[in-house]
Amino acid sequence: MSVKTIGKFLINDLHIHLRQGALMKAVTPALNNAGIGAVFVMPNLQPPITTSDQAIAYRSELQKLAPNVTFLMSLYLNPDLTPAEIRKAKANGVVGVKSYPRGVTTNSEGGIESYLVYYDVFGTMEEVGMVLNLHGEIPSDPDNDICILNAEERFLTHLKQLHADFPNLRIVLEHATTRAAVECVKSLGSTVGCTITVHHLELIVDDWAGKCHNYCKPVAKYPHDRKALQDVIKEGHPRFFLGTDSAPHPRHLKETSSCAAGVYTGEHILAYLANALASFDAIERLLQFGTNFGAAFYRLTDADLKGASAVTLVEQDFVIPKIIKFIDDEGVAREIIPYKAGETLKYTVNA
Amino acid sequence: MSVKTIGKFLINDLHIHLRQGALMKAVTPALNNAGIGAVFVMPNLQPPITTSDQAIAYRSELQKLAPNVTFLMSLYLNPDLTPAEIRKAKANGVVGVKSYPRGVTTNSEGGIESYLVYYDVFGTMEEVGMVLNLHGEIPSDPDNDICILNAEERFLTHLKQLHADFPNLRIVLEHATTRAAVECVKSLGSTVGCTITVHHLELIVDDWAGKCHNYCKPVAKYPHDRKALQDVIKEGHPRFFLGTDSAPHPRHLKETSSCAAGVYTGEHILAYLANALASFDAIERLLQFGTNFGAAFYRLTDADLKGASAVTLVEQDFVIPKIIKFIDDEGVAREIIPYKAGETLKYTVNA
């Protein structure tokens, strides 16, 4: 049987959760030869990564686990962050600062409530060339009709205000899920980028309702929202690029009364992405969306990406594992259920 | 410590799932002296209740388990239902016919796709005075932007058409969840009623996202939708009445990758209802919403309700059990997790 070769790819994942301890060790090594060049690593650990020193130490841990991958590090925006710390972070190669509105996702209890107190920090970030990464949801507020379905749309005024006040600050609206967000980012200047996950290209609200392994924040929304995410990739808009938000949780924290938010795509991201793009006839955008647009926005150089090698993507059935086993920090046998567990993708990486 | 007495109540639950076999035996007996007069029993068993004979046999089983409760029975709308069967059902005291759109909730795979083929049946129901009970959602259809969030609103054209074509047929829009549904029912004639669950008075989308025990169909929606449900009760609209949609599932079918849809309120419905109404200052509507409006729409007589006795509702803390244990039909120990498990309500029934 002949196998159709799509091409050689080395993608960049500009939004990933790699955790810490045993879970980090369970998910990071497999990234090493998976066709992944650079990953932008989220800082929402326990405790969060708030200083350059922590970020450097975390990067060092990750590099040992996957030496060929370029780990782009971030700090967790918090009131103790100073312009001096921003300069130090920049000097140490830290790339971005992540803002979490309070309480909207995993380990975001220390998230922000107002951006005004951070204007000195943002000014310094703009000056030194760091990226501001926004989890673009406001906290739910039923008295004002705000819930997880409109929390992203209601956040967009903040994005517009920040861009107006810091026009040269590179800002990324992370994991956009709505048509409103896509239209807003398109309307803004060249310093505003936007990540899109693979699962938000495939899921709508029906797909996570009662299906815990598809439950993430922001939640997948209406079909017209999914269509807008697909369309902006299909048109090849250069400010929209891959950020998987891959977010592993042990199975027992997913299949329970209060499910942890996060979809795990992990090391199979190239296959997932090809499969998703093909579903709406956009596989010809794989190189742009998956590699080049993100690299350009983050100003990655060949030197930044020297570690990893491109891999060959082929059109061939590939069954996602049903379960990934690991031993947690307490020595307990645990499982991770990956996205599309047990399902057959139409693409795979040629070993 | 003095306990404030709210009054004596005997409520009617015009939408309840009592299941079959071991699960039926686990949840039905507790209804017997819980201040519940009549319950309207859903027919979505396996196989569904499609004939009078089945309905009578099912009623007989239920009456043995809770002899003081009046069980109002329904048939599952399906292509084999004939005008003759409707007349037989009416003669045997069957009260309604339930329509499930295909595939939208538990055991609805045999649901309807178009109402036109049922017009003979509906005409006979109108003539003999049976009630048509509508699960008011259309199936999701992403190509037309239809998902579980707008499936109810998109259904309302069917409700309006049925009411226009059968103006004397009593129709109940079951478990309304949206402002659109409330406004639609209000706009229609006196033969159109609407049930509202307790949990939809309290939950929004945030409350079932990742929280399987609050996941039901139709799903709870925006805060403004919840407000509309509360408001129509607060204003005392006589065509809106209690139907809990109490729907027990064993825990292992809830806390899993594909969660069964249903919230279990069961025998504590009077306490739940008082607690919910009090949360939006509407406890004075308890008698109307919980008892009288439903009885009037269903034309229940004192003779229909002779079995049960009113119970005394008091303002006193009441902790909902965390777990209800039962042995399933295979002899396996199972659990049901009730709504608000482990939480403290402010009202209880005085034993």
UniProtKB/TrEMBL annotation, chains A, B:
It is an enzyme of class 3 (hydrolase). GO terms for molecular function: dihydroorotase activity; metal ion binding. It comes from the Eukaryota. Residues 13-301 form the Amidohydrolase-related domain. It comes from Physocladia obscura. This is dihydroorotase. Its EC number is 3.5.2.3. PANTHER family: DIHYDROOROTASE.
